Amino acid sequence: xxxxxxxxxxxxxxxxxxxxxxxxxxxxxxxxxxxxxxxxxxxxxxxxxxxxxxxxxxxxxxxxxxxxxxxxxxxxxxxxxxxxxxxxxxxxxxxxxxxxxxxxxxxxxxxxxxxxxxxxxxxxxxxxxxxxxxxxxxxxxxxxxxxxxxxxxxxxxxxxxxxxxxxxxxxxxxxxxxxxxxxxxxxxxxxxxxxxxxxxxxxxxxxxxxxxxxxxxxxxxxxxxxxxxxxxxxxxxxxxxxxxxxxxxxxxxxxxxxxxxxxxxxxxxxxxxxxxxxxxxxxxxxxxxxxxxxxxxxxxxxxxxxxxxxxxxxxxxxxxxxxxxxxxxxxxxxxxxxxxxxxxxxxxxxxxxxxxxxxxxxxxxxxxxxxxxxxxxxxxxxxxxxxxxxxxxxxxxxxxxxxxxxxxxxxxxxxxxxxxxxxxxxxxxxxxxxxxxxxxxxxxxxxxxxxxxxxxxxxxxxxxxxxxxxxxxxxxxxxxxxxxxxxxxxxxxxxxxxxxxxxxxxxxxxxxxxxxxxxx
Length: 520
Fold this sequence. Notes:
Layout lengths: L1 E4 L3 E5 L5 H15 L3 E6 L5 H4 L2 H5 L11 E4 L2 H7 L5 H12 L35 E3 L5 E4 L2 E7 L9 E5 L4 E3 L22 H14 L6 E3 L6 E2 L1 H26 L5 H7 L4 H4 L11 H13 L14 H11 L3 H13 L3 H14 L4 H16 L4 H13 L20 H11 L2 H4 L5 E7 L4 E8 L2 E8 L11 E4 L2 H10 L3 H6 L1 E2 L1 H10 L4
Parallel strand pairs: 2-3, 3-4, 4-5, 9-10, 12-15
Antiparallel strand pairs: 1-2, 6-7, 7-8, 8-9, 10-11, 12-13, 13-14, 15-16
Helix pairs in contact: 5-15, 6-7, 7-10, 8-10, 11-13, 12-13, 12-14, 13-14, 14-15, 16-18
């Protein structure tokens, strides 16, 4: 969190992940600088650790909280609300591995994650609240004057987040570069799961940053890590970060077009010596190997072009066959130990993974694989790799292995369409296929819309129309009239009291739908 002092108060730039943390940080500031009221809040991008603590600073703002400017880039709320709807449960499962959330703290377990010391995807165990922005930055060059402070904005979408802005304070000659440039290589693709980021656009945006603001800045700072001071240092820092993402992208594509696969490119590609020697390009959070594979995936999908990989067996069945071909479990375990003793931990892990996939209850295989994962984790400079290896070692043999949370999060501030998107992702398709076509019409007066939901072939589809254009609902199995808040209670909590009061038709149709969606 950064506080920019104005004539009478402060502008808060990125408000941490939780109400409690933000309030504590603001209190710490006031202890040393005196009480200054919050004049504005700026969100640089759509990740929780940059906006989740807004209530902690807005609760002490002068005057009506609703009148305080809350500034964010265009598309902010859409990016926030859709970030984890589709793959949220699977991502949360992966995040436990990536951030080492289940590991004890210590030299043989969780140390850090490079960007910060947090051990969860939200970066805090406190209360996270989304306070929507009321002022949108739509294009590079947009300006504001808040409490006497002049501010210029640069749109940098599809860099580290789907929507993001850099913030320049010309009178202070200070550039806030969000997460476009940090003191580590960042993620073009993240192991917790997300769409692959555009490394080429990332590089181009940084070049624009350098051209527009770099030469007029005395300090560059970001949402993580320490500032960079001094004209020459700033120019080199931004230039090197620009070259870092540009080189990764361009050389991956060059080798890809020569016929190499993502894995082959990742094994061969090295950074230029001038970049590799800098601390701020180190592979502490992001990693060259996985970023190269992500860039390849962005253009060429998961498939490496080898027909043998089009229709492979799933891990358990493949593992059984490999173990059988190699002479049985005991032979494979012995061979894995030989490779591990020779220092080839990568292939030892591959062999033992086949055993654990084929025979999940094989304790010797689990123990030996856990040992190999520990050695890989202890030798990893990259914090994310370390956490993944050590969490996997910890979890081998535990009953929770491989079980993601199953319910997709439904946010009360999302749109009705977002809620129905989330519900559709939870429908048990095979069970739903056993049911004949069902149609439900939901009228939402305060939204001035009528929604038609159809369950057919195990698939939930839905469309909305305005009141005046909506067709008659006479053919529907059920028609209900509810407010938007009652609609949320229905699809998020399974509360159908309001629907029962207004429902015309077969109420069991709605109950069945919510059961199929694991809501009730």
